[in-house]
Amino acid sequence: MKGTAAPFTIFQKVLLWSMRHRLVTIGATFAIFAASVYGMQSVPKQFFPASDRPELLVGWTLPENSTIHETKAQMDRFEKSLEGDPDIVR
Hints:
Blueprint: H1 2-20, H2 22-39, H3 68-82
């Protein structure tokens, strides 16, 4: 257990120092928070990057006891509803 004593001792010393110097700890916390808020300006605002693949994925969920025949029937109806749409290639 000698290898695990050193990290615990270091953590204990840092914790005790932080508790004894509360104002410094709180000030440092606010300073780091302010720096992170300021730093967010350099993060791109785009959540999803642009894709060069024009495709659409459709998730289709049926009850667990559905048969493969019911799944096929629903997919056939869905595909028919998309026929003739000029935005769909295949």
